[in-house]
Amino acid sequence: MKPLPSTPVEWLPALSSDTWFAQCPSDFQQALLSRAQLWSLDDGEALYQRGGRVSDLCCVTAGALRVGAWGEDGSASLLAYLEPYQWLGEISLLDERPRSHDVVADGPTTVLRVPEAALQAWLAEHPVHWRNLAQLACAKLRMVFMALEDIARLPLEQRLAKRLWLVAHGYGARSGPPRRLVRLPQEQLALMLGVSRQSASKALHALELQGWIRLRYGTIELLDLEALLRTSEGERGGAGPAGGLQP
């Protein structure tokens, strides 16, 4: 990981496409950008590792980050796939505990990093803005609760449709148009859903047969976001009682 020459304040318009950042007061936005530095990561390079003590606040500006856990035996779990302009790192900043997961670059990636010490010092003088960081953490907590509920009650095809819809909308963080082309290989999508690659592939092909997505190498084109949402909610034309997609 290496720093890049940049003027972070120039990122303000792009960063404002993220719902959380756009809703933050302007003085907090300026505090983040005036202290931020742009860093680059190579494919597979870690932004931070599970158990690490660095608590910088970060935002993806190009490329993507995989959030999960990678074991020494090669086992892996993938919890989230972050793309521009999603923020991360607020939990360790809030509770001052080690990082709970590994975060690794998927392809060449650039990240804005707001150093922990500089941000902590500013927040000590402006404590009201801790609330803004708490709101970022709470939005993610709501997503976790929803994912746990989905595992308990939804068949795989519905969970997959919902996950694709959420990824297209940046898990609720994207204020602009949804992403229609998702750069998410099937094996990574399977890890996110906690199923085998074969099961994920079967479910993806079922959605493709409906004409709602188109599978490409390493990417998924989302053709009908409204149908994906209806299916994830179990409405007519979605998954039936046994989990099969209905015509």
TrEMBL record:
Has the keyword DNA-binding been applied to this entry?
A: yes
Q: Which UniProt keywords apply?
A: DNA-binding, Transcription, Transcription regulation
Instruction: Report domain Cyclic nucleotide-binding positions.
Output: 20-123
Asked whether the keyword DNA-binding is assigned, the reply is yes
Q: Which residues form the HTH crp-type domain?
A: 154-226
CDD domains (UniProt xref): CAP_ED (cd00038)
Q: Gene3D superfamilies this protein is in? A: Jelly Rolls, Winged helix-like DNA-binding domain superfamily/Winged helix DNA-binding domain
Q: Which InterPro entries would you find in this protein's record?
A: cNMP-bd_dom, cNMP-bd_dom_sf, Env_Response_Regulators, HTH_CRP, RmlC-like_jellyroll, WH-like_DNA-bd_sf, WH_DNA-bd_sf
PROSITE patterns hit by this protein: CNMP_BINDING_3 (PS50042), HTH_CRP_2 (PS51063)
Q: What is this protein called?
A: Crp/Fnr family transcriptional regulator
Organism, as annotated? Curvibacter cyanobacteriorum
Q: What is the lineage of its organism?
A: Bacteria, Pseudomonadati, Pseudomonadota, Betaproteobacteria, Burkholderiales
